[in-house]
Batch of 2 targets.
Target 1
Amino acid sequence: MSDMTAVFSDIVGDNNLLSGDAIPEDYAHDEELTAPPQKPAYLAKPARAEEVAQLLVAASDHGVPVTARGSGCGLSGAARPQPNGLLVSFDRMNAVLEVDTANQVAVVQPGVTLTELDAATVDYGLGYMVHPGEASSSVGGNVGTNAGGMRAVKYGIARHNVLGLQAVLPTGEIIRTGGKIAKVSTGYDLTQLIVGSEGTLALATEVVVKLHPRLEHNASVLAPFVDFDQVMAAVPKILASGLTPYILEYIDNMTMAALISTQDLELGIPDKIRDSCAAYLLVALESRTTDRLFEDVETAGEMLSELGAVDAYVLEGSAARKLIEGRERAFWAAKALGADDIIDTVVPRASMPKFLSTARGLAAAAGGGAVGCGHAGDGNVHMAIVCKDPDKKKQLMSDIFALAMELGGAISGEHGVGRAKTPYFLELEDPAKIALMRRIKQSFDPANILNPGVVFGDA
Amino acid sequence: MSDMTAVFSDIVGDNNLLSGDAIPEDYAHDEELTAPPQKPAYLAKPARAEEVAQLLVAASDHGVPVTARGSGCGLSGAARPQPNGLLVSFDRMNAVLEVDTANQVAVVQPGVTLTELDAATVDYGLGYMVHPGEASSSVGGNVGTNAGGMRAVKYGIARHNVLGLQAVLPTGEIIRTGGKIAKVSTGYDLTQLIVGSEGTLALATEVVVKLHPRLEHNASVLAPFVDFDQVMAAVPKILASGLTPYILEYIDNMTMAALISTQDLELGIPDKIRDSCAAYLLVALESRTTDRLFEDVETAGEMLSELGAVDAYVLEGSAARKLIEGRERAFWAAKALGADDIIDTVVPRASMPKFLSTARGLAAAAGGGAVGCGHAGDGNVHMAIVCKDPDKKKQLMSDIFALAMELGGAISGEHGVGRAKTPYFLELEDPAKIALMRRIKQSFDPANILNPGVVFGDA
């Protein structure tokens, strides 16, 4: 393959094209745990959609694989570049183009981080409600993985909050899909097809996101349960009550112990209760008025007690915030504790007890362990897998994913399959669906330059 | 083309395959206004996905076009069959297979009507919240058109309420997409691609829909405004308030007059106010408790007055119900009044005043008229177009759609392009997007048997 440095430099300018050793180490990986870093051959930082289009045309013409990168905090390896490839970083396309209060949308470039978008919208009393664990994540990355996070139980996932895109096809065509509109039924929904496609179909260069009103008052109730099944049985009851929690998480006792020690949390739960309980349910409520919030908190506390909770603790502002932040950083706790892999499997939420107990049994049988927490309202289980033997770990992961699928779930609820989970996806998914997805991929990307390997594996 | 009667009969049984004159008139059309009825060559009523698969394989092998039909109440002609084609009716696949309260989903066959699904879920305090105007519409039809309706402002459109499908590909493969899961990021989202594809990609044979808790208490506030722009300016304020109306509709004065007379409505609005106002905003609120409902109704009333409403009328139960039902049947009122066509264009909601005034001007200039009502919270404008000259009407429709698209909107918000709006879609949409959609269509349906003509026009 010819050296493309000059070609790509001509497009983005010398200052915005790095190659070889000049590429910083940070661009060689995302936060996926298992794969070694891999630098790309080229790193381009385009400033405009037209530059992205020219990069993709040049890459198509010369068969250069292209990987898109937001903040590099993905957990499945979808932003890990190819050694002979071009990494397109959206560092410079990081403007909030518009906060449109009448339509309750923001128009942003893909490199905007959630922290930046939050700052740009807070004064309007509006917000982008997708909160994956990492506030430094980019909106473009959220689009790529179809990010979820704790607030999905009320506000939905990225898919539900992305209304439109400007996207560059691998052929260099720049299209606009959807828009500042709440609904559309005019041809196929290209927005929804691109969301969650992990950079394999098109590169988003502009994103229209939905904003929701920020409700001023919030509080959290933490309920320890002796029996894990009771935690799960409580979830549909709480959701059916109309209380509309914006966070509904379970945290198992081992993970809670890790959070308490690493985050220096003071939750006011007596040791005796902590020692005896199997898991916690965290219910966060928000409201327009303090009166309603107090009422809802009381109702939630009563419900939780009736549903078998040992007690229900209303967390004060800072304790609640620390616990939620700690929960968001559970991945880092898992990493620090020496997890060998992570999963973010989704199952029908009523199947969580069966999934969790069986998965733990599988892990124990493999000489390892599986602990975690998760989005109880969504059936989205985050587990840290400890299993030092690589072959056993691979089999264990495969068995856990197969179990999830038998229960009607899927391998990934929000991280995507990326590079790390693609082998399991190809092993376990219906071949008819994989073949159909390959044909869809082909319809976007005939030269197969966009993130080859991701979703479909290496040829 | 050979006579396929025997082939199709073998699959579904003699009793469930009609051909020629034996096919009832009702199967020759949906509710689209402009096209003449067209009977298919064959009408099959399969009972199972496997029969649907065999029908599609036979149709692919023999090049027979296939149109799917739910209740036949679509408004864009997507269920109008081809003269040499097979119409697949889901009359017999009309079972509610499961109401799963723990996962808050229902699993239904495509022929189930919304009335039937409502009856099956009401005792659980849960409901499928997509309410297009027609309660006799089928869930399969909702999937095909990505149906919306008045409650979309709170509960979203069909796309947001369809979690999974069993679908038959034109190749005869039966796949399952999504499931009883709230989120998934594992390969491309085939569910969302099939939803809204108007029977051109695959036929849904089972649908997993989301159920929401039914809030027990509701009330409606009707606010007349002298100035139409004030109606539209009020909308974002109400949505940003956190009041979360489940219906937020505007009704122009001519449509309201038609509703009042055809529905025999008693709204308690003095004639003087009715005569002086340009449009009404209807705000329906619901709550877990009567106290909160009263409070919210009061807040809404105060807000509406501050935002320029002449008054705010809290409608009693039966008056509110009749008005909402009347609004749902606005299409029939338009039809009865001699509308020559209808549109359901969507624009960014802040662009509605500009869109409406310009569209009315275009209609007047063409010697016709444009009146209506719409989903104010969604920017989804329903207009009855009166314009007797067919050529002028065609130009007028094209001009109105072009206007909507210039404002960042789309031709159809919820009816789909079907047969009726496809010529405009092909004329006005970005050719790069149409070409991409054609390639996606090809990736599902290489023999081009599923609803040819719809979305892409006749070759």
Note: Chain B has a mean pLDDT of 95.
Target 2
Amino acid sequence: MQKYARVTASLITDLLRRRSRQSSRLLSSTHILDHPSSSSSSSLMSSSSTHPLSVATINDKVLKCEYAVRGEIVTLAQKLQEELSAKPGLHPFDEILYCNIGNPQSLGQQPITFFREVLALCDHPAILDRSETQGLFSTDAIARAWQILDQIPGRATGAYSHSQGIKGLRDTIAAGIEERDGYPADPNDIFLTDGASPAVHMMMQLLIRSEGDGILCPIPQYPLYSASIALHGGTLVPYYLDEATGWGLETSELKKQLEAAKSKGINVRALVVINPGNPTGQVLAEDNQRQIVEFCKQEGLVLLADEVYQENIYVPDKKFHSFKKISRSMGYGNEDIALVSFQSVSKGYYGECGKRGGYMEVTGFSPEIREQIYKVASVNLCSNISGQILASLVMNPPKVGDESFESYSAEKDGILSSLARRAKALEDALNSLEGVKCNKAEGAMYLFPRIYLPAKAIKAAEAVNTSPDTFYCRRLLNATGIVVVPGSGFGQVPGTWHFRCTILPQEDKIPAIVSRLTEFHKQFMEEFRD
Amino acid sequence: MQKYARVTASLITDLLRRRSRQSSRLLSSTHILDHPSSSSSSSLMSSSSTHPLSVATINDKVLKCEYAVRGEIVTLAQKLQEELSAKPGLHPFDEILYCNIGNPQSLGQQPITFFREVLALCDHPAILDRSETQGLFSTDAIARAWQILDQIPGRATGAYSHSQGIKGLRDTIAAGIEERDGYPADPNDIFLTDGASPAVHMMMQLLIRSEGDGILCPIPQYPLYSASIALHGGTLVPYYLDEATGWGLETSELKKQLEAAKSKGINVRALVVINPGNPTGQVLAEDNQRQIVEFCKQEGLVLLADEVYQENIYVPDKKFHSFKKISRSMGYGNEDIALVSFQSVSKGYYGECGKRGGYMEVTGFSPEIREQIYKVASVNLCSNISGQILASLVMNPPKVGDESFESYSAEKDGILSSLARRAKALEDALNSLEGVKCNKAEGAMYLFPRIYLPAKAIKAAEAVNTSPDTFYCRRLLNATGIVVVPGSGFGQVPGTWHFRCTILPQEDKIPAIVSRLTEFHKQFMEEFRD
């Protein structure tokens, strides 16, 4: 198996395209233009009207950026959906099943009642004192809303907050982190953000100066990372997860790729780890995490820990441990390791994607650099207050004894146990197919099966100028209405093909998905049998 | 008067600092790193532990970026506020009066009831069917919430939406634009964003390839623009507003600066116009807008129209006209001019800064470029749904006959007429001071008075290594608790000094502000009289 082989063909092609396009222009001009020389008269306006922009003249970092989760297959799905609404009988399926994106509530998952009660009350605090409100909302939701309002200066939920987020909410989040980890957390280390994505961009913006700066990223990876590195003009230094050992992360591979990058003059600045994994679903063992921390410490790398799936664990023998907890348990403090942990309200059992809440906990950076991060956060003023409130709620949900505790727990457990069942059902179904091998989803929201495609299918894909995995996914969509994302959007060992499928469709849909997928796959393999 | 003189001293100093720092490193490396050569063994881990980051090694575009609205004076204000809480008698004032930022609800402005009712109901739709809800919420708010929920696929307010925002809400916004302008608007041209700032960043990211790309910006300007251009590595090409003619925008100045930039090899790509003006408060005349449109058309510039203060007009002889309306009224369509209009829920009479809602209307771009904008929007998935809903509400508020119409109108008119009175009171107070001249705030939320500082004050500022306007603002804050932003944060004609003061403190605070400011100013002028 070509474990340490090159990044996917599509990435290489992209690379070649890019190189030939690279501008070598050198400019002596200044950033803020000096005033016109005194001799410059107010010259005549040119009379030719030119349309300002073409694809050839926009920022090519934008052109290079790719984001498969909402890419070509999803665009095709939207087209099919429109066709289905216009002509219901047109396709051999009656609905589109979106398994492309971790967006639980779009597939019918209901929000956690307590969280929504508090959000509604904070949106319209005028009703807090009204008697009807007692009948409509739980007592602890009302109490929590008051508590939150008292943490907001002037109770102004419509005001820009502190650039890092409302201090009282950061206190709550820090307390939640302390409770989770058993180690202190400082509210001044928390930066509340509109979901985790802007936080990742902020760190990439800080770390990347040029193509000479590299970021170690897992392959396969969540394409936010490759997109953000491309947009900021850096270099993605891939390290490969080992599919054969359940998407294992080996430090020998990290070292090898780091040295290789260094030998090419790349200044590797940070290591991205996604735990639980996306798209791969593995949960790292504690011991493995210690090795990773040690590696970052030794090599002077910032550890960017994507921990947004920390609540999504489906197997009894695995537990989530934050990298901060691990590093503190090794005796490492702020002086030893620079660590950023990303969290989001979009994932977990709550799945509140549309609220765009999240935070990063930034530790081990100097005060001067913290000031720079603060400044960048300030330029965007603050993240949305509902998202901030929700981030505080998920880190401090109802406790035993609270009126909502029982219903809250039932909702939470119902969602998580159902997700575990769905993960298992889909995994089993995939593994029963000819030429498909699928690792367990220990956590997160995805399965990333490997598909061993017949040579004839690969040729057919080449004939229509597409990658074999995209070819497979497009055929699947056209035949069944099931939307999955080709593995090439995440990166994969060249010559191997995968797709990412979420475990999010509601349980009553799973049997239909399994049977449609099975039937399609059989026909596909028949059609292209060598 | 040095109208066409150089950008401010502080910007020039910054420029020099920057130049000496510019790295000239050339890299032949690739963006996505190639695999290690087959001979590379898994080399030994280096044993030295190095802390990864220092200010000298982060992205210097981040270092260069400045954002005065939350800069040094605000940091000092926060410190004073903490001291006041700890020791109430410590300073000669008992509260900090934040006049630094357009954040109305932080100063006691109440949200519009109808908007908050709808938001609360959309956050917790489970109560829509309950009888108590009829008593708590207005009938039209309930109806509107149902209508909005029906526009959201699966009524899932917790799901990621379409990357441009929920289609039904974009329909509503487009209809609102049509009603405002009398010209068609296409929902597919709308990109909903978390406030206007991310939209501005998105366009700068698209337009700026290198320092060779310039963006024409007014001076004085809202520092989001200079910050965004710095972060994306472009060149700010300044054009000066004419203080003597009420911050007039002359196309002769635009042409002059454009030619000067061209002669230095700068590729000027876009023109930023802020109307109503920030920090300057002027409202452009229709005729002037037509000249600007013609200029952009002729020169092939993208017109970036910051129209976030479109509802904030305080003088009877001025009206807001969108640049889209103006260009369409001149017979110019998509083929003639590329135009982006930014709108936000943070401003207007609603002032919902914390909700982070807004949109840009993008017209006159090719489908290929639109696709690139869509892709960048997709990387961040979508803007927050509450902000999206609110953006649809401000573009489609209650109408005559709706239950809420009367109370809504009373709230709206109350806020706008009060803002007009506050603007006038502060303007008059400022103009009554020795050595202060202040143009009228025709619109927006700010006054930008010029202060003629005595030479002795300027020397005193130099002695403590700060700009004279910052010196003045710091003294004002320390003496009175009033927070304003030095003009150098916005840019000003060199040798002139200003500050930006919002008109947002509640009316009962205005007399105290006026008397404290007047007293301080007299003492300051006495102290530094030449």
Note: Chain A touches chain B through 157 residues (CB under 8 Å).
